[in-house]
Amino acid sequence: MLQRALKVFLEVKNIGRYSINALDSIEFKTNLTVEEQSKVLNILNVSGKPELSRYSIPQNRIKDIVKWKNKNGPFKSLAEVLEVDGLSQHILEQMCDNIINNDCSSEVEISNSRSARTFKRLITPPIPIKLLNDLGTALGVYFSPVGMSWAKISKEDNYLLNWGFYSFCSLPKTMLSNDIFNLAVSALQKLPSADMYVLESMSNGRPTKMKLATIASDGQVELASMLIALLNTSMKHNTSLTSTDKAVASKEIIENRVFFLKSNVPARLFKILVGNEKVSAITKVTRLIENDGTFEVEVPCSPISVNSHLKQAFMAENSENKELLSQALMLVVTFMDVCVRKNPATLASISSPQSAAKG
Questions:
Q1: DSSP per residue, 2-52
Q2: Residue 93 lies in a domain
């Protein structure tokens, strides 16, 4: 009798242990492709209450999702979404279907149509579909009177791979064309290679506290033009060129890898545009790299991953260099969400009447 009771006790104990392990390792079984899972996860992470409501998600579920993100940060997997209170596998499956199939209201369809029209005029020249599909990394390159900065991000996990700047403060006041060419060659050597390069179209808007220019506006245009030519003809920077090419000049057509994002689009997305003037981006970018799970509620962009070394290097710089670094990171983050991922929340934000009025 005692042995039988002991056997039953051990069986119950094992069942309890199994149940706890099952709860500790929640699984979400799905037939979605990796790309579809990434799309759902991205939308859940970057969208606030208004955006999530467009996908026929009940308000009480939206409230719980936003509450979970504010407490724990972005979701790392779809299985982690099941940790939200009251959210079952069946409900998550419905949410995934709604997001994948764009199950939105007619009002949102109109908004998406407006966003699509907006997208077409945001980037020049048009990006070939194959180049977008094959994209692994993108490099944002920002020019200002006091220097040049860059930020390189991977498409797969939005990881910041390289972040740096080149100060113009020690340059002579007067520079001839050959001096600017030498500067462009020097700048090219500092830039890491990427599959695509994005610059921001020139505008008059700049941070209001920026020091006196060391390179005039026409000099910046000349420098940018030279750098475009160098990036497209450098075997290191243009991966469509191979070492088997006897000379770049022998190629009838060189595949363009440099694109321009419309001016002030990053500033509009990050809400640092006041009238026609940019205010400092340092505060917004500091919050972006801290990635505490709350920033995407304020700015609808995908969260990024930044290693501690790059964070510390950024924080150690003076305000002028921080501004340079901030502008480059804003540029490439905006480009990835607008042109590569076509993040609906991002497109809706920059195409809204209020945002358009500011930009």
A1: HHHHHHHHHHHHHHHHHHHHHHHS--------HHHHHHHHHHHHH--HHHH
A2: yes
**214-243 residue pLDDT tens:** 455 667 788 888 989 999 988 889 988 865
Contacts of 262 (CB under 8 A, 6+ apart): 121, 122, 123, 124, 200, 201
Q: What is d(CA 168, CA 185) in angstroms, rounded to the nearest whole number? A: 14
The verdict on residue 109 lying in a domain is no
Separation CA 266–CA 359 (nearest Å): 10
Q: What residues in the chain have per-residue pLDDT under 70?
A: 1-26, 50, 56, 102-120, 203-218, 242-252, 292-294, 296-297, 352-359
**Is residue 115 in a domain?**
no
Reference 123, options 347, 358, 318, 279; nearest CA is 347
Report the pLDDT value the prediction gives residue 283, as an integer from 0 to 100.
94
Q: Are residues 276 and 327 in the same domain?
A: yes
CA distance 112 to 147: 37
Q: What is the pTM of this model?
A: 0.66
CB 284 within 8 A of CB 271: yes
Give φ, ψ of 2 to 5 degrees: -65, -40
Containing domain of residue 127, as a range?
123-358
Q: Judge if 135 and 259 occupy the same domain.
A: yes
**Phi then psi dihedrals of residue 271, to 5 deg:** 60, 50
CA atoms within 13 A on the CB side of 340: 31
- Closest alpha carbon to 335 in 138, 43, 75: 138
Spatial separation of the C-alpha atoms in residues 96 and 49, rounded to whole Å: 16
Both 142 and 95 in one domain: the answer is no
- In total, how many domains does the chain have? 2
Strand 147-154: give its sheet, edge to edge: 123-124, 258-261, 196-200, 137-144, 147-154, 160-167
Domain stops at, among 104, 135, 168: 104
CATH (domain of 15): 1.10.150.280
Does residue 176 sit in the same domain as residue 74?
Answer: no
Q: Quote the CA–CA distance of 153 and 143 in Å, as a whole number.
A: 18
Whether residues 27 and 160 share a domain: the answer is no
Please report which residue ranges of the chain form alpha helices under DSSP H.
2-24, 34-46, 49-53, 59-72, 78-81, 89-100, 106-120, 129-134, 177-190, 217-233, 265-269, 282-290, 295-298, 308-316, 319-335, 344-351, 353-358
